[in-house]
Write a structure and sequence with these properties.
Blueprint (H helix, E strand, L loop, with lengths): L1 H21 L1 H4 L5 H27 L3 H24 L13 H11 L3 H29 L3 H9 L8 H33 L1
Length: 196
């Protein structure tokens, strides 16, 4: 089983990396670091959700948690693909592994079992979803990334959407999904509390 989720994540990461690099040479335009950093952070967040979801499909005790974990995997693979499409050719450096803080969370969760795992997994997912919601909402509030302002300042007239414009569209479509996911996570955790 472990090799199955590792293979899924590796495949998703490689696919996204290939998509991100494929058009870089063809476009020949450098993207501002702010937009690229935003995309890389969003990709890391998706990777975390996918890996923790796989862990929960194996370790969760309650059917609600297992179902939530599988839905998390499915949703985040889809959202990661959409993010890859939005950032296609922008030369974004996609994460290849979890950063240290998420590795520690994954290790901590992997040592837990039964009800304790279920509760802690759901708490981690709620915290992660809240962080992602704040990140996406801040992007919506700011109204875009750095490359759209630079394009306007440079007087660019290309009809090709900027990385910022594509990512902003991704954010607009993803934010409601994140909020729905957060609500579902809170409901699942609530049901776990009632089951005790």
């Amino acid at each position: 089983m472990r090799s199955s989720w590792s293979a899924t994540l590796s495949l998703a990461g490689c696919f996204v990396l290939i998509l991100g690099l494929a058009r870089t040479g063809a476009q020949g335009t450098a993207q501002p670091a702010g937009d690229q950093d935003f995309v890389a952070r969003a990709a890391m967040s998706n990777m975390v959700a996918i890996q923790l979801g796989h862990l929960a499909t194996k370790k969760a005790q309650h059917a609600d948690v297992k179902q939530f974990a599988q839905q998390t995997i499915d949703d985040h693979l889809k959202v990661q693909q959409q993010l890859a499409d939005a950032a296609y050719g922008a030369g974004v450096r996609w994460p290849k592994k979890l950063d240290e803080s998420y590795q520690q969370i994954q290790q901590r969760l992997s040592k837990l079992s039964n009800d304790q795992f279920d509760r802690e997994f759901m708490k981690v997912m709620i915290d992660r979803d809240r962080d992602v919601e704040q990140m996406l909402a801040a992007r919506v509030t700011k109204g875009g990334g750095e490359d759209s302002a630079r394009k306007k300042a440079a007087g660019a007239t290309s009809d090709e959407p900027t990385l910022a414009a594509k990512v902003n569209q991704w954010v607009t479509s993803t934010l409601p999904e994140v909020r729905a996911h957060l609500k579902e996570a809170e409901q699942v955790l609530g049901r776990l509390g009632q089951a005790e």
